[in-house]
Design goal:
Elements (H helix, E strand, L loop, with lengths): L17 E2 L6 E11 L2 E3 L1 E3 L3 E6 L1 E2 L13 E5 L2 E11 L2 E10 L1 E3 L3 E6 L1 H24 L6 E6 L4 E6 L6 H17 L3 E7 H6 L13 E7 L3 E4 L14 E10 L2 E8 H22 L6 H36 L2 E3 L2 E9 L3 H12 L5 E9 L2 E8 L1 H5 L4 H11 L2 E5 L3 E6 L5 H6 L1 H9 L2
Parallel strand pairs: 1-6, 20-21
Antiparallel strand pairs: 2-3, 2-5, 2-11, 4-10, 5-9, 7-8, 7-11, 8-9, 12-13, 13-18, 14-15, 15-16, 17-18, 19-20, 21-22, 22-24, 23-24
Length: 439
């Protein structure tokens, strides 16, 4: 869709579009303006993309966090695919691509909203009302909406709350929304003056600008909000509500993402499939999956500890051989060694063992683990007293493996993302030392 609705040159000078989409998915209408690029035209033909304004429309224009409707505008043998609906002031603007035929200003057309997509959006929008009610009940009445996104696929709801939300609270919020759904409360919309609506206790989104007359949307005795979006006739039509994620997005602002209806069913089916796969893999019934996973995790930790100890013991025995293979520059030993599948903790421990066996040395240890390079540089105390610096040395080595590093004069470490160059980097250490400190 891009920025077609933000063009400063687009001045419509039209009266507000009559919206007839609360009760209907389609409507007869008349084309009153066509804008191609930034220019008004009288006609558009197959393949052209333009902004179409009708005298009335069932298409909901993006607003209040709810995305715009899509669908079609048709007449005899001709069709415009409506890709989005936006609002310029109070005029509804349809972004459309002519799929076949041609359209002129003044044409009588049929405007048809994508019904299933609209229902999915309404499902998620209705659920945001229930979610806010549940949040205020579980977390407290300080909860206020700070933003939202309502699409056909999911809902996102931002709100004020100054603490972390624990799993028990999150489960209760989800459970409460589903209780509201099962109660199948009917939608109760009312129009009233904005001040009267606020005095009645209806919640308003702080960033929204409201007209003198507003629509208050209520469900049961737990939810009443100022909202001009599209909703379901009853909460039961949401079907199912599942929280997908919860996080902090700013100081005192948290975000919940959730799915409803078919998307919630598919998520449940996917999770059931994962449970079934775990049962088959672990060869245990569902109620033993967790205990079996814990058992395997403990066994894996024990095995890794044994491998770690064995690798360290093998290195200890190899230290004389590793030192003997090193080069010497002006009486200073340059020792390099490459491990397989080791992290920084292991490299630092190996460095301590190596340093204890040397009087005057530069030591560089490297490894590759999960596609990442790990490097550690260590200096004996005499080198540090001579103003040599491990953090300066490692910066030069790290460049060769596509990384950066730093640390103290005695010990520095670096990471990199080019494991293919680790051998060359270690081989180049003596030359780096010569350039920095040798003559």
């Amino acid at each position: 869709v891009g920025d077609v609705f933000t063009t400063p040159a687009l001045k419509l000078n039209l009266k507000p579009t009559e919206f007839v989409g609360y009760d209907s998915f389609d409507s007869s209408a008349k084309i009153i303006k066509i804008v191609l690029g930034v220019s008004e035209v009288n006609e558009i033909k197959s393949g052209q993309e333009a902004k179409i304004i009708l005298d009335k429309t069932p298409f909901y224009a993006e607003g209040g966090g709810q995305i715009g409707d899509t669908g079609a505008i048709i007449k005899d043998g001709a069709k415009i695919e409506v890709l989005d609906t936006q609002r310029i002031e109070k005029v509804m603007v349809h972004l459309g691509r002519v799929a076949e035929g041609s359209f002129k200003v003044g044409d009588q057309v049929q405007a048809i909203v994508d019904k299933e997509r609209r229902r999915s959006i309404a499902r998620n929008h209705t659920a945001t009302h229930l979610l806010q009610a549940a949040l205020r009940q579980v977390l407290g009445e300080h909860v206020q909406q700070q933003g939202s996104l309502v699409s056909a696929e999911k809902l996102r709801f931002d709100f004020t709350h100054f603490k972390d939300i624990n799993q028990g609270q999150l489960s209760r919020i989800e459970e409460l929304v589903n209780e509201y759904i099962r109660s199948n409360d009917l939608l109760s919309p009312k129009e009233m003056p904005v001040e009267e609506a606020k005095k009645s206790g209806a919640l308003a989104f702080f960033a929204e600008k409201y007209d003198e007359k507003v629509k208050v949307v209520s469900f049961g005795d737990y939810s009443a909000e100022l909202c001009a979006g599209t909703h379901l006739p009853s909460t039961g039509q949401i079907g199912l509500f599942i929280i997908v994620s919860e996080s902090a997005i700013a100081q005192g602002i948290r975000r919940i993402e959730a799915v409803t209806g078919l998307a919630a069913y598919r998520l449940t089916a996917k999770r059931d499939g994962l449970v079934e796969e775990l049962m088959q893999t672990l060869k245990v019934p569902e109620d033993r999956i967790i205990s079996q996973m814990q058992k395997l995790h403990t066994a894996l930790k024990d095995l890794n500890k044994k491998l770690y100890d064995a690798k360290l013991e093998a290195f200890k025995k190899s230290i004389p051989e590793i030192i003997a293979a090193g080069q010497e520059i002006n009486g200073v030993k340059i020792v390099t060694y490459k491990f397989s599948d080791c992290d920084f903790d292991f490299l630092r421990l190996a460095m301590d063992l190596l340093k204890a066996a040397l009087k005057s040395a530069v030591m560089v240890l490297g490894s590759v683990q999960e596609g990442k390079v790990f490097l550690v540089v260590g200096l004996t105390e005499d080198r540090v007293k001579n103003k040599w610096d491990a953090s300066e040395i490692i910066k030069e080595i790290a460049k060769m493996v596509g990384g950066t590093g730093g640390g103290r004069p005695q010990l520095a470490q670096a990471g990199g993302n080019n494991p293919a160059q680790l051998d060359a980097a270690l081989k180049g250490v003596p030359e780096i030392i010569k350039q920095k400190y040798g003559k």
